[in-house]
Design goal:
The protein starts with a strand and ends in a 6-residue tail after the last strand. The chain is mainly beta. The protein has a single domain, classed as Lipocalin, CATH 2.40.128.630.
Length: about 130
């Protein structure tokens, strides 16, 4: 079966069949505002980084696997890599395992969040320093 198209809507993550347009599943995520939330899809899961939580949903079934609170902050970036989740929000980077347990956190110098990404073994994180 082809992977669904995932759509982040207010308080909901919805999977759409890319061939027919039919809704495959819809998972409730109370408190999720898609204007501020970010979505990462990899390794069979979808991770939603919302204003004050991370949620992990099984990509094919829509089953909510876990939801954990995070620091508050809008427009954080989230990346899934090697079974870990990396969250960049409000100037800090946090690393979580595949079960939602925080492994470590590093405070940064930026007051904002943003995107982060990997290239090889290097993690690229923007900041707002001159």
């Amino acid at each position: 079966m082809e992977e669904p198209l995932l759509v982040l809507e207010p308080n909901t993550l919805t999977a759409i069949d890319p061939t027919t347009g039919a809704v495959r599943w819809s998972t409730s995520l109370p408190g999720c505002n898609p204007i501020y939330a970010r979505l990462a899809i990899a390794e069979g899961v979808a991770v939603v980084a919302a204003y004050d939580f991370l949620a992990c949903v099984q990509q094919q079934s829509g089953q909510l696997l876990w939801r954990v609170p995070t620091r508050k902050g809008a427009r954080g970036g989230v990346v899934i890599r090697n079974g870990r989740l990396f969250l960049y929000k409000s100037g800090a980077i946090e690393c979580y395992d595949g079960r939602g347990a925080r492994l470590w956190a590093r405070e940064g110098e930026s007051q904002y969040g943003g995107s982060l990404g990997f290239s090889g073994d290097v993690c690229w994180v923007p900041n707002d320093r001159n």
